[in-house]
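Forwarding the complex inputs:
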Amino acid sequence: MSTHVFNVEMTCEGCSSAVERVLNRLKGQGVESVSISLPEQKVVVKSTLSGDQLLDVIKKTGKKTTYVGIQ
Amino acid sequence: QELVAVRVPIIGMTCQSCVKSIEGSVSEMPGVHHVKVELSEKAGYFRYDPRVCSVEAIRSHIEDMGFEVPSEN
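Prediction (whole assembly, two chains):
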């Protein structure tokens, strides 16, 4: 279990809830918790999945995403 | 070849950037020829080539983007 940090280009409430929704769907399948800061454009995910797997899931939302690393 | 036109309800959009990201992403799908998302209607209008694409593919694509796509029946 590690805490992964991503920078995600989110411009509005709808964007952050979209990212939250795709990650929440993985709760119980490797994702334990998700916290999103719209002002900081940051998404923090506590998960057993790898950074790359999480990156793929977030990228599917169509938003520019970069992997910052493990906290 | 006759294109199929569908209307897909999309819940969770709040601004034009959500609309643009959906339109941009769905238009890249193979077989999709026409894309128009209406924020005010909370729905998207798509025309696609049924030999290559399907409404299910479009719906799951939008769901992967993090929006809710209630089924209309």
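The mean pLDDT of chain B is 94.
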